[in-house]
Amino acid sequence: MTGLTTGSPTVPGPTDRDRAVRAAVERGLVSPATPVAGLLDVAGVRRSAAELRSTFAEFTEAGVPVLHAFAVKAASLVPVLRLLADEGLGCEVASPGELALARAAHVPARRTVLDSPAKTPAELREALALGIAVNIDNPEELARVDALVASAPTGAPLGLRVNPQLGGGSIGAMSTATDTSKFGVALRDEGARAWVVRAYLDRPWLTRLHGHVGSQGMALPLMADGVRALFDLAEEINAQAGRAQVDTLDIGGGLPVNFASDRVTPTYREYVEVLRERVPGLFRGRYGLVTEFGRSLLAKHGTVVARVEYAKSAGGRPIAVTHAGAQVATRTVFVPDAWPLRVAAYDARGLPKEGPPVAQDVAGPCCFAGDLVAENRPLPLLESGDHAALLDTGAYYFSTHFAYNSLPRPGVYGYTADPSGEVRFATVRTPQTLEELTAESGGAHGEELRTLR
Ligand SMILES: *Cc1c(COP(=O)(O)O)cnc(C)c1O
User: Fold this and answer.
1) Distances, alpha carbon 408 to alpha carbons 74, 371, 393, 433, 444, in Å
2) What tens digit of pLDDT does each residue of 111-130 get?
3) In this structure, are residues 408 and 432 in contact, taking their beta carbons and an 8 Å threshold?
4) Which of 274, 291, 382, 420 is 20 to 30 A from 406 in CA distance terms?
């Protein structure tokens, strides 16, 4: 018996992701006719939601209300919002479209938070009528809300979004706490803090404070310092009001995701430990909490699988031309240094591809030269008919389609793999048909431009 095992290296078995890719190819979810699809690990999503809940359990156990409002922009897909609602999460919405999705997922108004820098009067009126929490962005918006509150009573929890102006993280476009960020009331500008305190003292219905210092690339201490700024401001307002007027702090989302390996780091728990160090007052139970995490709940659980249509070479560089490019990985293609993705190679049957690493470009289907999801990346040499999988793409990728070249939105499927390895799929979104795509592109108005002379 010993002879059978001697010297054989431990080969890791297939992961649930490997099983899902194989099953997606086998069952035709990824096929020559539908050459790209998004796959979502449902058990993984539930696990992340449970981790988030349990990390803040000490608050709930002490009777402090906590709402985890999922940032809908990270995965604007109704079944995903429904799944998260099942796990006790609400929604953070930032447009009428996102609100419509949250409502379609049966997320109740009391678990919905509206944040957007450009809310129209109609949006504000609807939110207040529904009782949805609104984080007011600026003095002009506050004036609009004043008028609405005066005209009809509302049960909607209301607060101001403030920008503590702490500085940026590693990605400028994602940093919302810079001196000149477009979001919230810039707290360190001259007279701003006093204006905010006065605004609260004049309006007993302002009961919340909101901050979100950035997404991805933010260090935990900087995130915690943003929460500290909220906490200190709430204490100041309440001291001046002589009562606990501000009762809830909305600390935003922004926990960064590790795109370099399968490891989840940092964790929610690590973030809460940094919060405990830097904002101990938060843990004394005087403030209810709202969180707005997006990427950290979903990213690790999604995979884009794309067929390799052609393998070629140019200037000595092998190139795999696949069906996943800027339409599903927009940020990675346009800002590759800030948004690198891991690519895994699978063969034509959807099995992990073996072979020596060969530096190659993994290109997408779009008609511009920069449509590359990976450049000069060492991978087993991809051949036509193989599959390239873009890992960690559960947030802001297949749910955030870019309609370049009229490429259709790919299908998205949730999966579970039971211990025996049996994979089950559920549809999140069917692939967009050419009829739908034509309709969306003005198909019903084909003759109209010709009538203008
Ligand atoms: C985008 C955004 C979030 C979510 O950020 P993640 O990095 O996905 O966690 C939360 N709150 C606000 C206001 C946002 O704009």
Assistant:
1) 20, 16, 18, 7, 18
2) 999 999 999 999 999 999 99
3) yes
4) 382
Does residue 9 have a pLDDT over 80? no
Is 91 a known active-site residue? no
Q: How confident is the model at residue 13 (pLDDT cuts 50, 70, 90)?
A: confident
- Alpha helices for 389-441 (secondary structure H): 434-440
pLDDT-based confidence at 311, cuts 50/70/90? very high
**Strand, coil or helix: what is 211?**
coil
Is the pLDDT assigned to residue 6 strictly greater than 70?
no
- Residues with Cβ within 8 Å of 436's Cβ and at least 6 positions away in sequence, in order, are 408
Measured in whole angstroms, how far is the alpha carbon of residue 121 from the centre of its chain?
Answer: 27
Please give the average per-residue pLDDT across 259-267, as a whole number: 97
- Domain ranges for the chain, please list them: 2-41+299-438, 44-297
Would the CB of 253 count as within 6 Å of ligand 1?
Answer: yes
For residue 162, which amino acid is it? V
What DSSP letter does each residue of 138-171 carry, written as one string? Answer: SHHHHHHHHHHHHHS-----EEEEEE------S-
The count of residues in the chain is 453
pLDDT higher than 60, residue 7: no
CA distances from 344 to 24, 121, 162, 187, 239 (A): 15, 47, 41, 45, 56
Write down the pTM of the prediction.
Answer: 0.95
Which of 52, 170, 215 to mutate for ligand 1's pocket (most ligand atoms within 8 Å of CB)?
215
User: Can you tell me the distance from the alpha carbon of 400 to that of 204, in angstroms, rounded to the nearest whole number?
Assistant: 39
How far apart CA 378 and CA 229 sit, in angstroms, is 45
CA-CA distance, 177 to 222, in Å (whole number)? Answer: 10
Contacts 24+ apart (CB under 8 A), 437-440: 437/406, 437/408, 440/403
Atom of ligand 1 nearest to the CA of 210: 13
Tell me which CATH code domain 44-297 carries: 3.20.20.10
pLDDT at 10: 61
Cα(253) to ligand 1 centroid in Å equals: 5
